[in-house]
Amino acid sequence: MSIQSNIQDIRTRLEAACQRSNRDPNQVRLVAVSKTKPASQIEEAARAGQQLFGESYVQEFTDKREQVRLPVTWHFIGHLQSNKVKYLRGNVSMIHSVDRLSLAQEIDRQWQKIGETVDILLQVNLADEESKSGATEEAAEDLARRLATLPHLRLRGLMTLPPYCDNPEDVRPYFAQLRHLSERIAALNLPDVHMTELSMGMSHDFEVAVEEGATMVRIGTAIFGEREYP
Ligand SMILES: *Cc1c(COP(=O)(O)O)cnc(C)c1O
Question: Residue 217 C-alpha to ligand 1 middle, in angstroms?
Fold first, then answer.
């Protein structure tokens, strides 16, 4: 299967999931997760009409951004160390993986330097898995209050990476849980916080995520094939 036909197939499945759940397909964005994949494959996807890409490793992203010659939009979705934020400054339009105040403060500081504001999502670790980053559900509301005070970032919603389950139906409760948490944070009516985005769903479970309200699905393997390393 070519990248082009994979993207077409995912778009068809996304639209079907939207129909099942009475949603407008324009409310769901496909983030093509291109980590570990070469610039040539990103360009191939871009020529097939894919405009938005997600990367997880700062160094790799920095290299590839230079190599990709077509106009694309980048989101950063991976675990982020504060000392690397400066390399993302001005180069990504959204960071999905903000899970602690110190990281948010550094993002605020870096975007202040260029006089701009960046959209961010608060990453939540719903199952408290040791191996995954993300704020706990208990900490999320308080963290959202603090993020709302930082002028050079705008909290736009939540992101999660739920436990892997062979049957995507088993992940459904986590997606619903993220939606409920987002509604609770929205109800706080924090200044300049608009909880409109839910970044959830990957190659094997994105249809269920869309049925539960995802506005961004992050899909790698189903577009580009298996990765050589995680
Ligand atoms: C790698 C990655 C994905 C994509 O996973 P696939 O199973 O390949 O679709 C999505 N989100 C995050 C945060 C990732 O690191």
Answer: 9
Q: For the segment 14-40, what is each residue's pLDDT rounded down to a tens digit?
A: 999 999 999 999 999 999 999 999 999
pLDDT of amino acid 103 = 98
CB of 215 within 8 A of CB of 198?
yes
Residues with CB under 6 Å of ligand 1 are 33, 35, 56, 77-78, 161, 202-203, 218-222
Q: How do residues 184-213 score in pLDDT, each as one tens digit?
A: 999 999 999 999 999 999 999 999 999 999
**Interval between CA 202 and ligand 1 midpoint (Å):** 6
Give the integer Cα–Cα distance in Å for 35 and 227: 8
Domain ranges of the chain: 3-221
The structure's pTM equals 0.97
Ligand 1 atom closest to 227 (CA)? 8
Cβ-proximal residues to 126 (8 Å cutoff; 6+ apart), any chain: 134, 137, 160, 162, 174, 177, 178
Q: Determine the Cα–Cα distance for residues 75 and 46; give it in Å rounded to an integer.
A: 15
Looking at domain 3-221, its CATH superfamily turns out to be Alanine racemase (3.20.20.10)
CA–centroid distance, residue 104 to ligand 1 (Å): 22
